[in-house]
């Protein structure tokens, strides 16, 4: 069964790229990150390619490769680039597809549009990546509510980082979303570790 999903985070540096590598490996899926900032030094595409180590996966080229490690609209302004929503057409593929957003759900693309507008355009189910830190419950629930209020389908959660059972229990009870993958705090990511997590993925019925 082919799936097309978007990996979205509750903020920046949440673990979206590692989560993407895990889901790419699980599905033997294609991967697409339409916007990269901090390129080429901070290449999430290269990270996913190296860690997923999936021979059947195609890496679709990003639309915007921006040099500054900033939010898309700020990096684009520095380079005199205009990010245009109409350019973000999904890649044509018969494979499963994992799409990774740049930053959080309301990160601006330009002066008037955000990642949320991309999600509305694509109308694909979202896997929301959460990470445990002070304030993460609030950020997770805000992300959940903005997706829900805009009728964006949410497939489930990926929980990343140090374990906090109380926080995870509250988030699960509030959102009623299944946990698709529970990622520990790891010091060194390898293809073997990604494969182990890929085997642990539980897709909702």
TrEMBL record:
<dbReference type="GO" id="GO:0005524">
    <property type="term" value="F:ATP binding"/>
</dbReference>
<keyword id="KW-0436">Ligase</keyword>
<dbReference type="GO" id="GO:0004141">
    <property type="term" value="F:dethiobiotin synthase activity"/>
</dbReference>
<dbReference type="GO" id="GO:0000287">
    <property type="term" value="F:magnesium ion binding"/>
</dbReference>
<comment type="subunit">
    <text>Homodimer.</text>
</comment>
<feature type="binding site">
    <location>
        <position position="44"/>
    </location>
    <ligand>
        <name>Mg(2+)</name>
    </ligand>
</feature>
<keyword id="KW-0479">Metal-binding</keyword>
<feature type="binding site">
    <location>
        <begin position="100"/>
        <end position="103"/>
    </location>
    <ligand>
        <name>ATP</name>
    </ligand>
</feature>
<feature type="binding site">
    <location>
        <position position="44"/>
    </location>
    <ligand>
        <name>ATP</name>
    </ligand>
</feature>
<feature type="binding site">
    <location>
        <position position="17"/>
    </location>
    <ligand>
        <name>Mg(2+)</name>
    </ligand>
</feature>
<protein>
    <recommendedName>
        <fullName>ATP-dependent dethiobiotin synthetase BioD</fullName>
        <ecNumber>6.3.3.3</ecNumber>
    </recommendedName>
</protein>
<feature type="binding site">
    <location>
        <position position="37"/>
    </location>
    <ligand>
        <name>substrate</name>
    </ligand>
</feature>
<dbReference type="InterPro" id="IPR004472">
    <property type="entry name" value="DTB_synth_BioD"/>
</dbReference>
<dbReference type="GO" id="GO:0009102">
    <property type="term" value="P:biotin biosynthetic process"/>
</dbReference>
<keyword id="KW-0067">ATP-binding</keyword>
<keyword id="KW-0963">Cytoplasm</keyword>
<dbReference type="InterPro" id="IPR027417">
    <property type="entry name" value="P-loop_NTPase"/>
</dbReference>
<feature type="active site">
    <location>
        <position position="33"/>
    </location>
</feature>
<feature type="binding site">
    <location>
        <position position="192"/>
    </location>
    <ligand>
        <name>ATP</name>
    </ligand>
</feature>
<comment type="function">
    <text>Catalyzes a mechanistically unusual reaction, the ATP-dependent insertion of CO2 between the N7 and N8 nitrogen atoms of 7,8-diaminopelargonic acid (DAPA, also called 7,8-diammoniononanoate) to form a ureido ring.</text>
</comment>
<dbReference type="GO" id="GO:0005829">
    <property type="term" value="C:cytosol"/>
</dbReference>
<keyword id="KW-0547">Nucleotide-binding</keyword>
<dbReference type="Pfam" id="PF13500">
    <property type="entry name" value="AAA_26"/>
</dbReference>
<comment type="pathway">
    <text>Cofactor biosynthesis; biotin biosynthesis; biotin from 7,8-diaminononanoate: step 1/2.</text>
</comment>
<feature type="binding site">
    <location>
        <begin position="13"/>
        <end position="18"/>
    </location>
    <ligand>
        <name>ATP</name>
    </ligand>
</feature>
<comment type="similarity">
    <text>Belongs to the dethiobiotin synthetase family.</text>
</comment>
<keyword id="KW-0460">Magnesium</keyword>
<feature type="binding site">
    <location>
        <position position="100"/>
    </location>
    <ligand>
        <name>Mg(2+)</name>
    </ligand>
</feature>
<keyword id="KW-0093">Biotin biosynthesis</keyword>
